[in-house]
Amino acid sequence: MFLPRPQTLTQAEADTLLALEKYYYGEERFTYPGLGGSLRLGLHSADRCEEFNLDITRGRIVLTKNTFQTRARKTVILVRLDIDGPPHRNPDGGEIPCPHLHLYREGFGDKWALPLPPEFVGVENPIELLDIFMDYCRIVGKPTIEEDIFT
Q1: Is there a domain that residue 100 lies in?
Q2: Number of domains in the chain
């Protein structure tokens, strides 16, 4: 059985894709995922030459476990924010406690985690964190995502 090789980018390509402004062009309003739920939204660059995805995933048991990620070219994770999950072991053996941020690194993909940048620290509300995450990823044409009763 043949498994396709994951697409890789140079660091310069990944940095350029992350820096591009991203837009959600739909009119639909969304509800933040319930326990064990997820939401996948298509995004585009302003010229619509690049496609991106915003993924929001919620833990099944732990109410506060959330993952937000921005992908380029369908499979390449540019940025992932893990909230209230296990610590992450980096390829060099160093351990980063959760919450942490994964940024694409050439040759490693999303295998490296970093402590949270200052703009994320101290924010507890998942909708507020998602908004900060979208700013961090340069999602300027943001989808409307509303809280559900368990957010």
Answers
A1: yes
A2: 1
